[in-house]
Amino acid sequence: MPKHILIVDDSKTVRNLVAFIMRKEGFKVTAAEDGLDGLEKLYTDQQVDLIITDINMPRMDGITFIKTVREQDIYRDIPIVVLSTEGEERDIHAGLSIGANLYMVKPAQPEIMVRNVKMLLG
Q1: Which residues contact residue 44 at a Cβ distance below 8 angstroms, ignoring those fewer than 6 apart?
Q2: So which domain of life are we looking at (predicted)?
Q3: What CATH number should be reported for the domain holding residue 57?
């Protein structure tokens, strides 16, 4: 059974691109347009093995989304990758300090993204 990735990004272009890259590698993909949509999809999907999320999104940003995911025991160990245009040291530190496993700055090279996802999934 393929590993399931949840992509959370308010940019349809980014969602579609990352989904295409991950599906090409054999992953099952679910896409969400912001943190609230991401939580809804996380709660209704059978199993999510890894989350890729943006930080700057309407309704619920990525920081709040990650904190909410990490507060719940059932989701605490899901690897989370931040994929954001915010590349300042303080942004990276903020993402990692609230529970992201990895922080990547857009535009990320597809092969590096895939390698990191595979590494986090073991």
Answers
A1: none
A2: Bacteria
A3: 3.40.50.2300
